[in-house]
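Handout, tutorial session.
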Amino acid sequence: MTRFAIISDLHSNTEALGAVLTRLAKEGVERIVCLGDVVGYGPDPERCIDMVMENCALTLCGNHDEALMKGATDFNPVARQVIEYNRRTLKPTLLSGAARRSRWRFLEALPISHREGETLMVHGSPRDPVHEYIMKTDVIFIPDKIRDIFEHFTGMCFVGHTHFPGVFTEDLQFRDVTQLDYAYEWTGEKAIINVGSVGQPRDGDPRACCVIVEDGSVRFLRTDYDIGTVQRKIYDNPNIPDLCAARLEIGK
């Protein structure tokens, strides 16, 4: 594989996305893949979509992106409130301009998976690319689920969705980024790599997370960004619950 970066779960957080794009540019990365969830939770869906359209070679469909089109019937109240707000502001009307229509068409056409050789990329899991969560606790409490998921791909599978970065191996082990020392070397065995979240990390580290992949070497990057600015935007927006701001500073 050529050298590229993978980002996921941006959630309308342009401060985090901007910081990550700047970091990747300094790293010399020229190709970026996004595993979805461009919208939801954060204050800047339009600008976030524009930044993805401008900077990502490929973007997949996440469950928030799909819910924007089909409805957030299975979402918790906080996530549903923001997606319904996003739909009101993003869905084109008869009088909408070209930019709004372009954003909607972009999200509407997102693929649900992408394969390059032995590498599979999805938002959720190989069994259900958009919706299924692969949780770190599954290796202990639902091992048969993990075994079955490993039957659905060969090589490496990159996912997002849980906002919790780390690596699952076929021997039913999960190692988070601190246990990995922020790097994983693929030697041909099956592995599921969760790239973490740019816009709303949930592993206790509030810094944006993504990965750089090169010849089977996966490096996790954590990037500081201006959390306070994002929080103020959310607190000033009555359509977004305050929880979406509060959780950013604790990475939960």
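The second record follows below. Compare its token runs with those of the first.
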Amino acid sequence: MHADIQQVKEKVGEKSDLIRQLQVELGKVVVGQEHMVSRLLVGLLTEGHVLLEGVPGLAKTTVINALAQALSVSFNRIQFTPDLLPADLLGTMIYVPGDGTFKTRKGPVFANLILADEINRAPSKVQSALLEAMQERQVTIGDESYPLERPFLVLATQNPIEQEGTYPLPEAQVDRFMLKVTISYPKQDEERRVLDMALEETARPVTSVLQVQDIFDMQQVVKMIYVDDQIKEYIVSLVRATRDPAEYKVRNVAELIDFGASPRASIFLGMGARAIAFLNGRGYVTPQDVKDIAFDVLRHRVILTYEAEAEEKTADDVIREILNAVPVP
């Protein structure tokens, strides 16, 4: 097994140069926000959809635009609004009077990279239309189903402040997002650099550094990264502890959790930990990789009770307790 890990490590080393090039390009327009950038790269490496939550002005849209420019992929930005219809997203059948037939006009969802801006502003009809694209990676228009070109990645943003004119996302859809990343304000020195870039207009244009085949190659290497049986047991224990905290001796959280994480959380924890190992240049997963990605994978899958809200406890507080309590292999 050690020889295999060594081979994988060499492959990771060969591909890490591509990731560095990508990070350099993103650094031209984004200051700081390393966590957001690394999580978008995790999404790219595993083809997992990412939900970014943060107040306006934290470069969520900017970084996704920059990512699309740095990759040689098709990209569409869709601004979600309360009057958006499923046909605006997926496309529709158009009648051709000349020969009395219908032809399909494909919508903006037919692209490799989709930016769903302010996703929580559109009603549930639109969300359910997006659900098929996210899960099956295909779109049904009329009675025809069209496969979406790979890679296909939905990067969505939502603003946690405004409740006016927003719709809570259906749980089934939230669960389709591999990661939910919460974005905080920049540090003082970072904000100063943002100001300098804006006032002096020093932001450089982003150039395309990766081809589609490079993305596929990196995804294949990530799938080869070794995950030990003990790590797999650890992942399953973490997820099960969200459903039955008492079994894992996690104190003070049972009354805070209404519903625990689904089995999809276990899969995404494994995939995400592999991507973190890849970004760190390793051919194997460590327990720390699992811990690093745990908040982003679990925070939108742990549904809290009213008691938790009354005590002003967040999902992150609950996950922290679980990570502290479940024994690390």
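Points raised in discussion: The mean pLDDT is 85.
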